[in-house]
Amino acid sequence: MATLQKRALILFAHGARDPRWAEPFKRLQEIVQSQSPELTVALAFLELMSPRLPELVPELVASGVGDVTVVPVFLGQGGHVMRDLPLIIAELKAAHPAVSFKIAGAVGEDPQVLSAMATYCLGAID
User: Fold this and answer.
1) What is the pLDDT of residues 24-50, one digit of tens each?
2) Pairing of strands 6-13, 40-45
3) TM segments (predicted)?
4) How far is CA 106 from CA 3, 79, 81, in A?
């Protein structure tokens, strides 16, 4: 196994049956990756789409990732972010004790994100 020195940022989304649903998340992944080429920026899903978080992390660890930050790209801290994600991360920590995991708050609760969304919404009436 590679030494665990790389950092990864995982954008964690819900998932949907329609593959088109993931397109904005893929664009976000590309934007973040282009702004931070030194990071591994990946997209993972809770359900209905691949890769799911438990599938992705072992691949990242095998490539030398030892520091993982998970950003829930959810509008709020609902049950998936408050219950499901911590359980998944606990299982991943147990399976990969040498890896550091951090969970950020839901992206939709950030004041800058909400401000950008408000600007967009107000722009819709022009």
Assistant:
1) 999 999 999 999 999 999 999 998 889
2) parallel
3) none
4) 30, 11, 7
Catalytic annotation, residues: 14
Enumerate residues 6+ apart whose C-beta is below 8 A from 70: 10, 12, 44, 53, 85, 89, 101, 102, 103, 104
pTM as predicted: 0.90
Compute the radius of gyration of the chain from its Cα atoms: 15
Q: What is the DSSP string of 18-35?
A: SGGGGHHHHHHHHHHHHH
Strand order in the sheet with 6-13: 40-45, 6-13, 65-72, 100-103
Asked if 79 and 47 touch (Cβ cutoff 8 Å), the reply is: no
The encoded tokens of residue 115 equal 């401000």
